[in-house]
Amino acid sequence: MAPREQFSSKAGFVMAAAGSAIGLGNIWGFPTQTASNGGAAFVLVYFILSFCLAYPALMAELIIGRHGRANIITALRGISSGPITRKFGTVVGVCGVLTASFILSFYAIIAGWMMAYLLESVAAMLSWSEVSGWLTGFSLARNVMFLLLFMALTMAIIARGVTGGIEKWSTRLMPLLLVLMLMLIGYVLLQEGAMEGLKVYLLPDISQVKPALILDAMGQAFFSLSLGVGAMLIYGSYLSEKESLPVLGAVVTLVDAGVAFVAGLLILPAIYVAKLHGADVFSDAGQLIAGPNLIFQVLPALFDSMGQVGVVVAFAFFLLMSIASLTSSISMLEVPVSLMAEETRVNRLQATLIIGVMITLVSVLILLNFDLLFGLIVELTTVYSQPLLGIGLCIFVGWIWNRNNLLMEIQRGHAKIEQSLFWKIWPSYVKFFCPALIVAAFLQSVI
Ligand code: PHE
Fold first, then answer.
1. Is 141 left (phi over 0), alpha (psi -120 to 50) or beta?
2. Protein residue closest via CA to atom 6 of ligand 1
3. Which domains does the chain possess?
């Protein structure tokens, strides 16, 4: 058997992990959540939770992954202490793999829409109005076609493996994503009305602060860092022993939160520029439009009103969204594919094909029963499953895994960790604080 693949460098890992983390959750979820939760107050709580809760949970995944050098199920079984915890490891692992797969099944649908709008901007440049109409029409045929296209791209990258696929494409696409985003911000901030949006984003509006704010911010931080489903775990498993996990985990957390913050500088001003151009940006209830309507109605209306430049801005914006989706979706697909390739006789290419086709079929099923299934699967996976799995992983690191072995794993690549603040705080953090806070959020979402 060939030796297990590894990221070729620190930067390769950071690009891949940041690529997984930075996605629709940052560019769409975070800014709109901020807008509907009282602006800067939400931003502040989100930042605190990113570092005090999501970072420790991310560390749990990276450490388990690098220690196990395997997919989530095998890695968890490897650190269990007896038959019961082994079973528990299997259950958590299986649920993680299923959750990652189901998240991909709805994520790929949305990403397909982004790509359809991307092509639409090209059609608009060429004045192909019939094609434009079809591309923005949300017909079943269009949705299925772009789902297939997006899944094919995701599978093509994953089939090429860790360095030739995940690392190579993350390293190419992430810098492009940052450049696109900064250019768009520069342009939007110069438009009339942008400053009003900036105010909503950066000045706290205490009257909008709801009791659910902390819990919303937590869910957002969890989704944004790709936690609970074994995506970060499998990326950690491809990391060299020479690297310091606490440092790399902190870099990824910082980049993820930083990009979420910067995305707010784009989306909120854009909404208010659109408002000035006559777009309906508030729902009947007076809430800022935040769902798909924002991306697929409010913003396109804004781009339209900008004339010729608008087409280029639309192109850049939907390219940004497509790239952000792709570097996240590959990490979702890697979860089941790594499991199958490692645990059966099937090779990576075959595993990618088999699982990719299965997930695509689930997506088609969702498209055929959209009203019934779409919201349900989003809610089951992101509201219930991700936080619950997060508790499971914290229990593994905090309660089940032998503490000396845990320390030995973190010491690899960070010899002095035992004297550090990290080691003084983090173990009890994952043991008590993280599960307790996640339970609180879970209860809130159930109620
Ligand atoms: N973090 C991604 C985003 O912000 C979503 C994601 C969730 C990726 C779970 C992988 C696993 O959009």
1. alpha
2. 226
3. 10-269+329-446 (1.10.4160)
